[in-house]
From TrEMBL:
<keyword id="KW-0805">Transcription regulation</keyword>
<dbReference type="GO" id="GO:0003677">
    <property type="term" value="F:DNA binding"/>
</dbReference>
<keyword id="KW-0238">DNA-binding</keyword>
<protein>
    <submittedName>
        <fullName>Transcriptional regulator/DNA-binding XRE family transcriptional regulator</fullName>
    </submittedName>
</protein>
<dbReference type="GO" id="GO:0005829">
    <property type="term" value="C:cytosol"/>
</dbReference>
<dbReference type="InterPro" id="IPR001387">
    <property type="entry name" value="Cro/C1-type_HTH"/>
</dbReference>
<dbReference type="InterPro" id="IPR026281">
    <property type="entry name" value="HTH_RamB"/>
</dbReference>
<dbReference type="GO" id="GO:0003700">
    <property type="term" value="F:DNA-binding transcription factor activity"/>
</dbReference>
<comment type="similarity">
    <text>Belongs to the short-chain fatty acyl-CoA assimilation regulator (ScfR) family.</text>
</comment>
<feature type="domain" description="HTH cro/C1-type">
    <location>
        <begin position="10"/>
        <end position="64"/>
    </location>
</feature>
<dbReference type="InterPro" id="IPR010982">
    <property type="entry name" value="Lambda_DNA-bd_dom_sf"/>
</dbReference>
<keyword id="KW-0804">Transcription</keyword>
<dbReference type="InterPro" id="IPR018653">
    <property type="entry name" value="ScfR_C"/>
</dbReference>
<dbReference type="InterPro" id="IPR050807">
    <property type="entry name" value="TransReg_Diox_bact_type"/>
</dbReference>
<dbReference type="Pfam" id="PF09856">
    <property type="entry name" value="ScfRs"/>
</dbReference>
<dbReference type="InterPro" id="IPR010359">
    <property type="entry name" value="IrrE_HExxH"/>
</dbReference>
<dbReference type="Pfam" id="PF01381">
    <property type="entry name" value="HTH_3"/>
</dbReference>
């Protein structure tokens, strides 16, 4: 059982209510010295004491839930790359998570201010680091890839429409027709000028390319319903984020509409129950719900509803060149924003065996271990000779959750030698002796000597302690 240390939060809660340590100890029926140890993280919170605290202060037990320490540490390392050692950042994230989040928020505001300044002075080099895609990815990452308002609304609508697995298109078609007077028109892609779908409000028609598979058609229909019926919810979320750029607003609207569509076609409780029953076997889930591999993996990464959580996954989509076109996470996997990802990651190995599921135990520099599942997906457009698209889809979770996955069968999740040492990306990775390194880490000096050569391409100087 994981021990809960929440001394700083308990002390802050007590002080906010103006209660002395002696008085609170009396109300909790424990000694003042015991309470003092809890507040200084010398003793963990027991279940009995936690329940009494919630009764005294009228707070939910989730108030004392452990914060996502790996996620906070990864973001702190980006915000403070040269100002603190990893153990110090870990202690800050563990003991004072609210302070850590404040530091991260300040860094995020700094980046936003820097972007605005770059816009004013016309420096496009500065703006390039904060593209609309980056900002939308950051939104979902901060929310652990879960948007409760849309997820719950989609599940309620699915129940209202009687959406059934594998037959969602019929229910969505009826909704569009009966409520909005929208007709579905299927056309070949050439007649749609290369588009996969196009909604024409003047004719109340939703044009879908014949190249779309059944699940992809359902997603387009569901997204259109989101834009028509839940525009106010979507707009409110966008307004809260204060996005000034029109392109970012449009991309966010598309992302939220697609999120709603997936939650409508794969309703939360039904999908979570199937995932748990099938031990997160993605092949079986794709057959069960008649949806594609990528759609199933993406939905698995969103199952973070309080009191009904699935395995917290990180989800990525990359191409052969290493470009990451999607990255969302319900866990603390430290995605790099400084360019490039780790070539030792099995997401890239998947390209060598198209269509085959690859598994990997990956160890990060901070000691955190993940089980990663990767497989390629292929999309074709047009006939013979037309170029297609090939991506590798990766889905990863911390090894403490891996026992719930069929992919962990036969693996020694705890053996040190069984784990592949990877990092967030060469420019932020702290592994001193990695022979695969493609760039020196930011703010680290190279240990160069004209009279010697090394197997390691970027030998690094030891940092002074």
């Amino acid at each position: 059982m994981v021990k809960t240390f929440a001394g700083a939060r308990l002390r802050r809660l007590r002080e906010e209510h103006g209660v002395s340590q002696i008085e609170l100890a009396r109300q909790l029926a424990i000694s003042p010295s015991y309470l003092n140890q809890i507040e200084h993280d010398s003793r963990p919170l027991t279940v009995a004491v936690l329940i009494r605290i919630t009764e005294v202060f009228g707070v939910d037990t989730a108030y004392f839930a452990p914060h996502d320490t790996p996620r906070l540490v990864a973001q702190l390392r980006e915000a403070l790359p040269t100002r603190a050692a990893l153990p110090d950042l870990t202690e800050l994230a563990t003991r004072l998570p609210e302070v850590a989040e404040a530091v991260i928020d300040l860094y995020r505001r700094y980046r936003q201010a820097n972007d605005q300044l770059a816009e004013v002075v016309g420096d496009r080099e500065l703006v390039a680091g904060r593209s609309p895609h980056d900002q939308v990815s950051d939104f979902f990452y901060r929310r652990q890839n879960y948007v409760p308002d849309l997820d719950e609304a989609a599940e309620a609508l699915a129940a209202e429409l009687g959406v059934r697995r594998g037959e969602s298109r019929l229910a969505l078609n009826d909704r569009l027709a009966q409520r909005h007077g929208i007709r579905i028109v299927r056309q070949d892609t050439d007649s749609l000028a290369g588009e996969l779908h196009r909604y024409r409000p003047e004719t109340r028609t939703l044009h879908l390319s014949t190249s779309l598979r059944a699940g992809q058609e359902a997603i387009r229909m569901g997204a259109q319903i989101a834009l028509l019926e839940y525009a106010d919810v979507i707009d409110e979320i966008i307004e809260e984020e204060k996005f000034d750029d029109l392109q970012t607003q449009i991309l966010m609207r598309v992302g939220l509409a697609n999120y709603f569509a997936a939650a409508l076609i794969l309703p939360y409780r039904e999908f979570l129950a199937a995932a748990e029953t099938l031990r997160y076997d993605i092949e079986l889930l794709t057959d069960h719900f008649a949806m594609g591999w990528e759609s199933i993996c993406h939905r698995l990464s969103t199952l973070q509803r309080p009191k009904a959580r699935g395995v917290p996954f990180s989800f990525v989509r990359v191409d052969r060149a290493g470009n990451m076109s999607k990255r969302q996470s319900a866990t603390g996997f430290p995605f790099s924003r400084s360019g490039g990802t780790c070539p030792l990651w099995n997401v890239y190995e998947a390209f060598s065996a198209p269509g085959r599921v690859m598994t990997q135990i990956a160890a990060m520099p901070d000691g955190q271990r993940y089980l990663w599942i990767a497989r390629t997906v292929t999309r074709h457009h047009g006939g013979y000779g037309q170029p297609g698209k090939v991506f590798a889809i990766g889905l990863g979770c911390e090894t403490r959750h891996a026992g719930r996955l069929v992919y962990s069968a036969g693996m020694d999740l705890h053996a040190t030698e069984a784990a592949t040492p990877i990092g967030p990306g060469c420019k932020t990775c702290t592994r001193m002796t990695c022979p695969q390194r493609a760039a020196a880490p930011i703010s680290r000096r190279l240990d160069l000597d004209e009279n010697r050569s090394t197997f390691i391409p970027y030998p690094l100087k030891e940092q002074a302690t």
